[in-house]
Amino acid sequence: MRFLTRKYLIASALGLGSAGSLAMGLAMTTTPAHAQLTVFDPSNYSQNILTAARTLTQINNQIQSLQNQARSLLNQAKNLTTIDFPELQALTQTLQQVDRLMGQAQGIRLQVSGLDQQFHQLFPQSFGQALRMNDQVVAARSRLDTAMTAYQHTMTVQAQVVENVAADAQTLSSLVAKSQGAEGSLQAQQATNQLLALSAKQQFQIQNMMAAQYRAETIERARQAQAQIDAQAATKKFLGSGTAYTPQ
């Protein structure tokens, strides 16, 4: 009201009429009011909210997809993770110990080369004539010593295999624990291969032990057969032609 009075006085001073001054005052006061008016559109507002919701859903889907990809990469990394096999050196060493023992066989060695010569030298199978007594005793003693050495060698191999069983039990426990704790397919396959390696090592030991056992039994049977052959030859030499004393 004060603002209108001031405008009216100014207009009166300028010589304007009361009607013109009033119109000018109204025009000057109403123009700023129209500029400050805010218009609210409900349909536009709801559309904006819907768009924002859809955008948020897309972002959540992208985040979920990235999380799934991350899990997939982690699983692939686990499947490619390897495990150590320090027990391999121990398995190899025990096999080498058994091999060294098998190479210590005396008399008739467990080698194809030279086997026939060693066998015929120890068991000549002299059907035709008996050796002299001293030669018979020496040869029989040599064959007996060879048989006894073969049995001793067999027992040594068996003792080594038995000692290896305790170490194999510890190795088996370690491999089973690795197999059960495998994180991925590669670790599981490696643990399985390691268990198969332990099984193969034990089979090699059994084969060596059986070879030593059969060698000792074969030498003993050959010794008995040779003793029978020598006895027959000695008896034949003692009897001679079968003709008794012929008087002159």
Explain how this protein is built.
The protein is mainly alpha-helical and 248 residues long. It contains 7 helices and no strands. It has helices spanning 2-14, 18-35, 42-79, 87-103, 115-122, 133-180, 185-239. Helix 1 (2-14) packs across helix 2 and helix 4 (87-103) runs parallel beside helix 7 (185-239). The longest helix is centred in the last third of the chain and has 55 residues, at 185-239.
Helices and strands, with pairings:
Layout: H1 2-14, H2 18-35, H3 42-79, H4 87-103, H5 115-122, H6 133-180, H7 185-239
Biggest beta-sheet profile: none
Classify the beta-strand content into a percent band.
under 5%
**Uncertain runs:** 6-11, 13-24
* Cα-atom radius of gyration: 55 Å
Q: Counting H and I runs of at least 4 residues, what is the number of helices?
A: 7
- Principal-axis shape equals rod-shaped
Structural class given helices, strands, pairing?
A: mainly alpha
Which sequence of SSEs, written as H and E, runs from N to C?
HHHHHHH
Query: Span from first to last CA?
Result: 190 Å
Number of strand segments: 0
Oligomer: single chain
Query: What would the average pLDDT be, to the nearest integer?
Result: 75
Overall helicity: over 70%
